[in-house]
Design a protein that fits this description.
The protein has about 475 residues and is of the alpha+beta class. Among the domains are: about 120 residues, Sandwich (Immunoglobulin-like); about 210 residues, Tetratricopeptide repeat domain (Serine Threonine Protein Phosphatase 5, Tetratricopeptide repeat), CATH 1.25.40.10. It has 17 helices and eleven strands. The longest helix is centred in the C-terminal third of the chain and has 28 residues. The radius of gyration is 25 Å and the shape is flat.
Length: about 475
Amino acid sequence: MSRSPGCGWGVALLLLASCAVSLAQPTEGDASLFGTVRDPHGPLSEVRLSLTAKASGIILSTKTDEHGEYRFSYLAGGAYSLRAALAGHTGATVTCAIAPYESKKVDLTLAIPDSPAPAASAQPEPAFYDEPAFIVAGVTDSVYQGGHGSDAVIRSADALAKATASLGKDSRDSAGRIPPPGATIEALEDAVRRDPSNAVLHHSLGEANERAGHALEAAREYQRAAELDPSETNLFDWGTELLTHRADEPATEVFSKGRRLYPRSKRMILALASAWYARGAYDQAEERFLEATDLDPRDPEPYLFLEKVRSAAIVDSDGYLARLARFAALQPENAFANCNYAAALWKRCQQEQGAMPACANVEPLLEKATRLDPGLSAAYLQLGVVYATKKDFSRAISAYLKAIEITPELEEAHYRLAQVYRLVSEPAKAQEQFALSSALSKKSADEFARQRAEIQQFVVELKGQPPAAKP
């Protein structure tokens, strides 16, 4: 469920239009809703807008840009409720109907109360001053200490950090300058001494130190590059270095500044989402993940990040399901889109005891995914879950075996296959699959612990506070 921001303390004041949206699956020629939000002094940026489909209850959210403009795209015709909220202003809510394929404009004006009440309590994003509020003081060897029950979320946080790093580095500065290729650390250090205000040289020295395994030196050079030239690249690479080495709070600080300076940077928003997720701040993480999907709803990359999320606070939300539904509708020939939406829909259907009309789409979506990509083991695994729940054990066994054939080390498929074998009174086969599942689980846990132990963890000191205790 999308969280409303802690910034409204009044009822809707001004209804300038009527509006509404039905998020059944969008179709080709989708409708859109757009407009400007202002107060008596002019357009307002950073206004949080939530759009609720009256038919389904699904919620989409966005913020106004620097010109006070907003847009919701790829909507089906139907009835919607639109709410706008901003700290220091009275919120506004309107309802309206959008015809299929219609592009509708709805402008909103927020009033300024005479005596504003204090903002509702909410965890704000950290401030970012001219100088960061932290110091990377050193590094320490990391030891994996994930406990039972949190392992899946811990693993997903690491996977998201790796995915963030994979979004790539680029040595260009904001002026497009590129350093000499293949420069050594020594050569770059000499160049920096001669030209200490050259951000691209500091960035290149950071890259060289990173390749050499000098994490602390890399972080400091990336920081210096960002201080000299707060380009999107410099801020992103600095934050990524912090996130990779589990300095999650400083990484959030850096990425938050990056998002404010570059509000249309997809990778900055995804990085900020991953940093919030690593900190266990799932409300903030969800907002940013969904914001990334809304930049270009047809772009698969943000959904690849969402696929790695394991926190129930996010994957059980209406916003999560709505984005996967939209992506499957916009990319009907994408096996990944069909499979992920089907898996999320199946989970919701189990929670709702099959009461949703869309529940009937789960099996066809999964079968379509396997036709589009016969090598997609996740689709066969999910089909096995559906068949087993329906007590169609023969088809469940076939689906699990196909998933294992494609991905032999798919631990969950072995475990679920063992459960079905036990239900059909084949204890020998069940025991064999349980043993395989157990062995794969141990192998996976050992490998994960080894990978985490190999990463040096930054020791961070917050300015004005006592040094953090070293692990």
